[in-house]
Structures are given as C-alpha cells and as structure tokens.
Write a structure and sequence with these properties.
The chain has two helices and four strands. With 88 residues, the chain is of the alpha+beta class. It has one domain. It has a four-stranded antiparallel β-sheet, covered by helices on one side.
Amino acid sequence: MAMASERIASGDGLRLRFMPDDATLHRLTEIVLAERQCLSQLRFTLELEPNHGPAWLTIGGPPGTADFLSGLMRDRDNTPAPPASGMN
C-alpha cells in the first residue's frame, strides 16, 4: 500500500487515502481480491468521495487488527505507526 497518500489508524484497523485515478482504483480492487484469499477475517471497504475526491480503503477486523496492519506497514516501508484517530 505504498501508493497511499495518508494512513490513519482506526479503532479496529487502518484507513488509507488514495488518488482516485482509474489505474489506482483498479489496483486497489486487485489488492483487495488477493488479500481476501489469505486474510479472510478482515473487512475491506472502498469509499469514493464525490466530485472525483479521494478514494479511501478501510481495512478492519477483530481485536488486534490495527496493530497487525500498522506492523505490516512499518515493516514494509520503515515509517512510524500512524497516530490513533479515535475513528471506529
């Protein structure tokens, strides 16, 4: 998810912001379809803001999902974990 322009920790997962161009939306769909095969306990929500605004991919799941996803992101790109925003 290196193409995400913003990451926000939520109560049960992670919220990622993307540019809404067609190539990115196609790639997000491919990623969700692939990840559902091995991470079937997670919930994936893709939101498209009006007027060609940003796309948001929210990944949530059972307790511990936020820490699991933040760890994956840190391991992937060596960035600090996003601050919790209190979103649910």
